[in-house]
Design brief:
106 residues; 3 helices; two-stranded antiparallel ribbon; Alpha-Beta Plaits; alpha+beta; 15% helix
């Protein structure tokens, strides 16, 4: 980093800056959720946690960085999880295509 100039250092994107990356957002239907915790176990980003048999997303300050991969949506046996927002890369990243939010491997 010492070889970068002043302006270059400020142009390098960082994951902890909310202006550079907006992480995904999930919605839970707690009326049909069974509390099986399969979503928590399959989350590659470790964004989900169980609170008294109720899944929830970690807050951003708790390192809750959802990639919106939709693995939890695909594995939920009662379809109690849905994607509300994809992961959005801004300013420094070029997004090739943002399609419809769809769960993987269906």
């Amino acid at each position: 980093m010492e070889k970068f100039g002043f302006f270059e250092k400020h142009r390098i994107p960082t994951y902890n800056n909310p202006n550079h990356i907006i992480f995904g957002l999930l919605a839970f239907n707690y009326n049909i959720c069974t509390g099986c915790s399969m979503c928590v176990q399959c989350c590659p980003a470790k964004t989900l946690v169980m609170d008294n048999k109720i899944p929830r997303m970690k807050k951003a300050e708790e390192n809750g960085e959802c990639m919106a991969c939709a693995d939890c949506v695909a594995i939920c046996p009662v379809q109690a999880i849905s994607l509300k927002r994809p992961m959005i890369l801004t300013r420094y990243f070029k997004t090739l295509d943002i399609g419809d939010l769809m769960p993987p491997r269906l």
